[in-house]
Amino acid sequence: MAFAFPDLKRPQYPSSPEVLLSALAWSVVPRAPGHNETGLIYQRKESRAKRGVTIEQTMPRGQGLEAFRASLQSNGWTAVTGGDLPKVVAEAAVDAMLGVKPPKGVGYASSAIGLAGALLQDPIGGLATKNPPNFANLLNTMHALGGSAEGQTAASRWFDVARYYSATRELKALEDALAGTTLKNFLREGVWPPNSPQVAKASVPEPAPSWWQASVVSAGVGTPFSWFHSSWNRLCSPEWYTILPPRRWAGWAVCVLRNAIGFTFLWEANFFLELARGIADHERDPTTVARWALSPTRPLVPYQRGGIAQMDVMPSIRRLLTQGLACRKAIIEAAGELSDEPNDLASLVEALRTANPKSIKTALGGGGDKGGLPNLIETVRYSLLARSALDTPDHHALLKVVSRNYTHVAPAPEWIVVMSAMAATGPSDAVRLGDVQRSLEDIGFKPRIDFLLGELERAGLCASASDGDEGIEINLGFGRK
Question: What is the DSSP letter of 429?
């Protein structure tokens, strides 16, 4: 049996980040038979899709808007003056559900609040492709690699939150109106409202390698997986979802998902690159090689001060992904040819040094198979990059484009709020600058104290500094116990 590595489905990033939440949603809510190949997008922007791809707009318009208005009225929405609910109210509700408006793509997604709100688009509609990546499987696998799942997946935890919001007085009528009109043909008969997640077989997480539990999870090694696991469980806990409004919760959830995906594939590239370097360099201790592969010694997204060109992070990101992808393919191929399966990473390094495959040296030298590289670079870049129109700004991005040609680390206002909150055990618990720094080190960002402090001060989150620097308290704005 060949040595196994974390099995992460190859990525492709959707134009609208909300599609990531929608992928989780459609993995636990059954689709009506005969509609699995029809893509959904909330607001259609381009009239033509790729050959063989059918995409339907779910935003109520025309006769659909009148049916939606009538359904809202029958579900309890009333006019203040009495009589029929005005059409303008239904139009306002429809417009309010719009999410981020990326400059490119087949259309715009909804903000993905609640159950029905997240079902208003899917990966086929979001990417305008017949065979999109299985985002639900990818996210569930990432979550499982981060720690004990206790029978829960990233999708099932999302479902608990979405069901809670959908049952609230403010959203229930809206959810039932959407399910009874624009989503009616796509939901399996009798499925609404869903009471429990019905997990699609294709979304079940891939099993972790045999060595992963002892070498990573039990050893407490910080990785993007452990960050995603703890952050997602935290955000999906009653402590958080009962205090956050549904739209803000959905925005925070998308922020966690896109950062997890972006940093996961940067981590994977660095993992295989460090392994390849350690295999080629016989002077390095195999245990040290394994440790550096699992825990990057350098920031995965480098940040430095300087001129516009010096602060551009894309050259180093592109270089890491290019080298890492070639090394990944070379190492997986070489490991599959070993006669005996090593029991951990250090043993793998020793075994491949003995085998001495040329493909690993070729990959380190800039050669090797780089199939899928454009999609990989695009996934990482657009996961972290601000992508929106002026009327719907992206408040959750880490990177932004400067002067058209350069990509800088420039956190949007809500990014540092979400990252700080995910370093806290609860909304009312104390969280300090050092907690946020350590949390971001797990994901691979490794920011300097002065950078973090500047972002926190800009967001107005610094409360006090009893012992300075790491001890600076952060005020999340939810009150203290």
Answer: S
